[in-house]
Design brief:
The complex is a heterodimer of chains A (about 200) and B (about 200).
Chain A (H helix, E strand, L loop, with lengths): L1 H10 L20 H45 L4 H23 L8 H5 L11 E7 L3 H9 L1 E5 L4 E5 H13 L4 E3 L9 E9 L2
Parallel strand pairs in A: 1-5
Antiparallel strand pairs in A: 1-4, 2-3, 3-5
Chain B lengths: L20 H10 L2 H22 L3 H18 L9 H19 L6 H16 L4 H14 L2 H12 L4 H8 L3 H21 L6
Helix pairs in contact in B: 1-2, 2-3, 2-4, 2-7, 3-4, 4-8, 7-9, 8-9
C-alpha cells in the first residue's frame, strides 16, 4: 500500500518522497454532489439569462407604463380646444390682414384685441366670422339676434346655424356689408360663430 | 450579441485521459451546458477532495464545492489558458476554501467533536488496521494548519508538480519545497501524537 510506503519514508526522515503516494486517501464525493452542482449552475444560468435581458425588459416596461400613464392623463385632462382655436384664429388673422387691406372694405375692421376677445370662446371649433356693422342697421342686428344663440354676450359672440348664416350672408351682400373670416371657414356640427362688431353711426 | 472567443492553446488531458479540454473550454465559453457538465464531471472529485480536507465537515465541503462550481461557470470566459485548466481550478478551490475558513473560523462542527472522540477511542485501543490507519492519517492531515494541509493535499494526495503547486498557492517553487518539508514534519508529529506510528 502506497500510504504505508509514505509513512515509512516520512518516519525515516527521507527528504525526497514521491508525489501522490497518499492518493488512496482521496475523499470520494457523495453521489448527490454532481446533481447539486448542476442544479446550482442551472439556476445561475437562468438568472444570467434574466440579467442579460433585464435592461431591455426594464426599458420596455418603463415605456409601457409611461404610455399608459400618458393615456390616462389625456383622458382625465382633455386638451383645451378653445385655446387651440384661438391660436389658429390669431394665425388666420395675420393671414387675412393682407387680404383685407387689398379689399379696402370700410365696413369691416379687425384688431388683435378683438381676436383676443375670442380666446375663451368654447364654440371656437366652429367657423368664426366677424361682422362689423353700424348700430343703426337694425334689420341685420335683429336678424342675427333672432336666428342665433348668444355664446358670449360681453364680446357679442353668437352661434348661428349654417342655413341662417347663408341667408345672413345674402342680406349682408345686398347691403354691401363686408364679412371677415377669422379662422378656417369649415362647417362643423352645422353651426358658425359670429362676432358682431357694432360701430357708432 | 457577438461572442468573442479567445484563442486558447491548451494541451492538457482531462482526468479521463482524452485530449479534448480545448474544445470543452470553447464550448463552455459559448454557454454549452453539456460541455460544462463534462468539465464538472472531470473535476468534481478533485474539488470535493480538496474542500473536504481543507474544511471542517462534509456539509461545508459540499457547499464550497458548489461555490467553486459556480465560480468556474462564471469565470471560465476569463480563463486565458496561461496555466493548466486543472491548476486554475485548484486555485479557485483553494481560494474558496480559504474564504470558507475565514467565514467560519469560530464555528465548532459536530464532525470535529466526533473526530476527536473517535480518535481517543482508537488511540486507546491502538487498533491500526488498514481502514483505521487511513482514517487516522486523514484526521492528522485535517489537524494541520491551512498552509500545510493545502500543500500535503496538492503534493502527496493529488500528486501535482512543484510548479503547479507554486501557481496554485501563488508562491515561489523554493517556498513550496520548504513549506512541504515543514508540512510533512508537522504531519509526522501529528501521526506520532495520535499513536498511528511510534518514534
Amino acid at each position: 500500500m502506497s500510504y504505508e510506503k509514505y509513512i515509512d519514508k516520512l518516519m525515516s526522515n527521507e527528504n525526497e518522497i514521491e508525489e501522490g503516494l497518499l492518493f488512496e486517501l482521496e475523499e470520494k464525493p457523495p453521489k448527490e454532489l454532481h446533481s447539486n452542482m448542476m442544479k446550482t449552475i442551472d439556476i445561475k444560468s437562468k438568472k444570467g439569462i434574466y440579467k442579460k435581458y433585464q435592461r431591455f425588459i426594464s426599458t420596455v416596461a418603463a415605456a409601457l407604463i409611461f404610455a399608459v400613464l400618458l393615456r390616462g392623463f389625456t383622458i382625465l385632462n382633455p386638451p383645451k380646444n378653445g385655446k387651440i382655436a384661438t391660436k389658429e384664429s390669431i394665425e388666420n388673422y395675420g393671414n387675412n390682414k393682407g387680404d383685407d387691406n387689398n379689399k379696402n372694405d370700410g365696413d369691416t375692421e379687425k384688431t388683435v384685441s378683438e381676436v383676443k376677445g375670442l380666446k375663451d370662446d368654447k364654440t371656437s371649433l366652429c367657423p368664426i366670422y366677424e361682422i362689423s356693422i353700424k348700430k343703426g342697421n337694425e334689420s341685420i342686428i335683429d336678424y342675427i339676434k333672432e336666428n342665433s344663440s348668444i355664446s358670449d354676450e360681453k364680446n357679442n359672440i353668437y352661434k348661428m346655424s349654417t342655413d341662417s348664416f347663408k341667408i345672413l350672408q345674402k342680406n349682408l351682400k345686398d347691403e354691401s356689408i363686408g364679412i371677415t373670416t377669422v379662422n378656417e371657414p369649415l362647417e362643423k356640427d352645422g353651426f358658425v360663430t359670429i362676432k358682431l362688431i357694432l360701430k357708432a353711426e | 450579441m457577438i461572442l468573442i472567443i479567445p484563442t486558447i492553446t491548451i494541451s492538457i488531458e482531462l482526468p479521463g485521459g482524452r485530449n479534448m479540454e480545448n474544445d470543452i473550454i470553447i464550448e463552455c465559453i459559448k454557454g454549452n451546458e453539456k460541455s460544462y457538465e463534462k468539465l464538472i464531471t472531470a473535476y468534481e472529485g478533485k474539488i470535493y477532495n480538496m474542500c473536504c480536507y481543507m474544511l471542517k465537515n462534509k456539509e461545508d465541503a459540499m457547499d464550497a464545492s458548489q461555490e467553486v462550481c459556480i465560480k468556474i461557470f462564471k469565470y471560465i470566459k476569463k480563463f486565458k489558458g496561461d496555466s493548466k485548466l486543472s491548476t486554475w481550478i485548484y486555485r479557485i478551490t483553494y481560494n474558496t476554501c480559504i474564504d470558507f475558513i475565514k467565514k467560519s473560523r469560530n464555528d465548532v462542527s459536530i464532525d470535529d467533536v466526533i473526530a476527536l472522540d473517535s480518535h481517543k477511542d482508537s488511540s486507546v485501543e491502538n487498533i491500526i488496521e488498514s481502514r483505521e490507519m487511513k482514517l487516522e492519517i486523514k484526521r492528522c492531515i485535517k489537524k494541520l494548519s491551512e498552509d500545510f494541509k493545502a500543500i500535503i493535499i496538492l503534493r502527496d494526495i493529488e500528486g501535482l508538480t512543484y510548479n503547479e503547486i507554486s501557481e496554485i498557492l501563488n508562491i515561489e517553487v523554493g517556498t513550496v519545497k520548504s513549506r512541504l518539508n515543514r508540512a510533512r514534519e508537522a504531519l509526522r508529529n501529528e501521526l506520532i501524537k495520535s499513536g498511528v506510528v511510534r518514534r
